[in-house]
């Protein structure tokens, strides 16, 4: 085993691991030995900016919110990319122009999908 | 065994540094007092100014204001504590991990200040939690807050790790829970924590 070319690497790995874990262990040991834990009900309570927590955290969100995410992506993110595209348009090569068009068309496809689904009409 | 102060300086001149575990431990504690990030009133503005470049609280290792009591060592009561707010402040103090320290900043936090006669202002936060450093002022200047930090650092430095007056986190018997007052019909109930504050006797 010691003749393996990777043996020194393994030794170094164990040393590195010890270098990281030893301080954690020492801190834990120090805490155990010298700093007794004094838990109580108020201390262990959920932190709610000083208020007592009320109700249940397991509430459900409507999955329909993903539509807002998609529409946001189309109108906001696309506008951000369209502006530099328009500014640099005259100096662009054919390949860059095609790449940009693919990007824009992909998003427009999403818009067409949302439109067809009737998302754009406010209920 | 503690080394004599004069001998320590003499050894230091020769390039030999001697110390004790206690000194190292307290040096680490006092050089990283992380305050809790909250402000109650106008004193908080001075507290914010203290952390900024002009006064530079980072020199004391205390620029790391933590937004959670679990990671904070110091509570700066920066401003007027109303009776509406007092239970929250006491609960947050309870939720801090030991060792925890409190600076009462400004006249209001110490005694109610200009609002002492008001019906809705707590007449000093030390009615409910133990305060380590009081700084007067309305509001205290950033220099005063820095003075409070230095006073607190001196206090931490002077705390022996063993013996009767060792810091609370090293003492298994020390009280760790400070009752949170509730809103009563006319006042907070109880009106003070007898464990940390005795009601002064008024002699007329």
What would you say this structure looks like, in words?
- The complex is a heterodimer of chains A (123) and B (204).
- Chain A has 123 residues and is mainly alpha-helical.
- Chain A has a domain at 63-117.
- Chain A has helices at residues 7-34, 41-44, 66-87, 94-117.
- The longest helix of chain A is centred in the first third of the chain and has 28 residues, at 7-34.
- Chain B has 2 domains: 1-30, no CATH class; 34-157, 3-Layer(aba) Sandwich (Rossmann fold), CATH 3.40.50.12280.
- Chain B is 29% helix and 8% strand.
- Chain B has 6 helices and 5 strands; from the N terminus they run αααβαβαβαββ.
- Chain B has helices at 5-13, 21-30, 43-51, 86-95, 106-111, 142-157, and strands at residues 74-78, 101-105, 133-135, 182-183, 188-189.
- The A-B interface holds A 34-36, 38-43, 45, 47, 49-52 and B 68-70, 87-89, 91-92, 94-95, 98, 161, 169-172, 174, 176-177, 180.
Globular, elongated, flat, extended or rod-shaped: what is the shape of chain A?
flat
Number of strands of chain A: 0
State the helix count of chain B: 6
The unreliable regions of chain A are none
Question: In brief, what are we looking at here?
Answer:
The complex is a heterodimer of chains A (123) and B (204). Chain A has 123 residues and is mostly helical. Chain A has helices at 7-34, 41-44, 66-87, 94-117.
